Amino acid sequence: MPRRTFLSAKIHGATLTSVNLDYEGSISVDTALLEAVGILPFERIDVYNLANGERLTTYAIPGKPGEICLNGAAAHKGKVGQKVILATYLELEPEEIPGHTPRVIRVDAANRPEAAH
Fold first, then answer.
1. Active site residue 89
2. For a designed S-S bond to 69, which of 28, 34, 64, 86 qualifies (C-beta 3.0 to 4.6 A apart)?
3. Is 26 a catalytic site residue?
4. Catalytic entry in 8, 26, 28, 48
5. Which residues contact 14 (CB under 8 A, 6 or more apart)?
6. What are the 10-residue block averages of pLDDT along the chain, 117 residues in total?
């Protein structure tokens, strides 16, 4: 059986704090959030804008506390205050699938992790 792709990590409901067109590209994400879900600097990341349905793929770079900033061309895909979902994926061998659990956090309006439900 071939490898299959699964959700690896997700930051749900993050608020865009800024957009920066004059940058080479990527999305800046609060370093603590990246660490909480295991996303590494320069790792491929998908961004889903809940306000306008835009989707894009870029890479994560460490940001300041509370920061979620679309950089470069990606800055055209969102506006400050809009909610986004950030997700990464990984490929698993069939024997790895049963034990896989993605790391998921929800954040509040200030991009702080919410208490688990």
1. no
2. 28
3. yes
4. 26
5. 29, 33, 68, 83, 84, 85, 86, 107, 111
6. 95 98 92 97 98 97 97 96 98 96 97 80
